[in-house]
Amino acid sequence: MVSCIxxxxxxxxxxxxxxxxxxxxxxxxxxxxxxxxxxxGLQSQLPLPLPFPRPVVYTGEGISGEGKAxxxxxxxxxxxxxxxxxxxxxxxxxxxxxxxxxxLRNGTLSAIRLVDGELAWNAQHSxxxxxxxxxxxxxxxxxSTILSLRTSDATTIWSLELHSPISAPLLxxxxxxxxxxxxxxxxxxxxxxxxxFWRLPLxxxxxxxxxxxxxxxxxxxxxxxxxxxxxLTGTQLWQRGLGGNPQKVLPLDSLxxxxxxxxxxxxxxxxxxxxxxxxAGGDIVGSPVVNAQWVFFLSLDNILWALDRNSGVxxxxxxxxxxxxxxxxxxxxxxxxxxxAPELRSFSSETGQPVITFPAANDLGAQPYIDKSLSAxxxxxxxxxxxxxxxxxxxxxxxxxxxxxxxxxxxxxxPRPTQLELSTALLFDPLPALPxxxxxxxxxxxxxxx
Length: 450
Hints:
The chain is mostly beta strands. It has a domain at 73-89 and 319-435. The chain is 2% helix and 40% strand. The chain contains 1 helix and 38 strands. It starts with a strand and ends in a 6-residue tail after the last strand. The model is unreliable at 1-40, 53-71 and 400-447 (pLDDT under 50).
């Protein structure tokens, strides 16, 4: 059965379709500090993008054609294809329905076909932040320039010169494009042609990608604030000061966000009021993930945590042998963790017990990419290796040697290999389960100072 968590409160406000003044004077005023150039040399007048949908959180189950629930299973898997890009990745890749786009350190943007791992095209774009995709476009930011490229051949659709360098990863969804600048400004653009809707000075640097839920935009600033902004008008709705610099916000029924003061916070979406916070032994790494009941996150004291979403009470914690580099990923009942080591580790979301470790020849350059759209190509997961390789994993063609339905799988039937190569081997080598560790609860309901 599929469970969905919808945000409390009324539905998002109806999305207006204001008339856009098509005069040259109005268009010039709206982009006074930026210059937009489209393929035809003229700026098209299009309606505003559609509003973002209400956020939905799934419990890790998919829907079959008959409407019956099918549990998501990642294991067992094996290598389908491996591609050597020739240079290490500069940022994390971007994906669409047909390609993976990898910025390389040599200034090349490579498009790789998901169907077979072959190169579709190369283009010269030196990127500091990941590209974003949507609507047949890939949008890249080169210092103070934004380019929209066709995904089919990398030809330019439009370009936008900014008055300041870009300071954070771009956000693109449902026709909207949000750009943070080193001046502390946030820009809202139409992704189809770069038309500027609004810009908002935030009086603080932005280093983290914003988040959107409904018609609200949530921004983390590098001076310890969370801001809620009306997506349609650019009006600031509220702000909340934290004890450290916040990471990217996970906006659901409430807002979940970690910070450099060692706390994971749950805040009200309506006004930013503190609902609970939990103190870890180190800075929170990346964004948390959730299922229907619990929230999972990583901290720099090398701990993977599980807390109750509603109360913030600890459910379990697991020590890691490596320093985490990003937040965890959740696939069904399995948590995936990458760190400063050439491996991908998985843990049970129910108990925190280790399940499987995937050794690799080099460190991972990004979190594993797992999306249901990969099934169209017979894939389940794509790994980005720091030495410049992509490894696509699909369902194993041979039967698994054991069932991964408990936290304590039996020993493998085959001898344990000394090194399991991602490009050649079936990935099913388990780690012995460790005793569960239950720490003293440090639940803190005291609100931090505003």
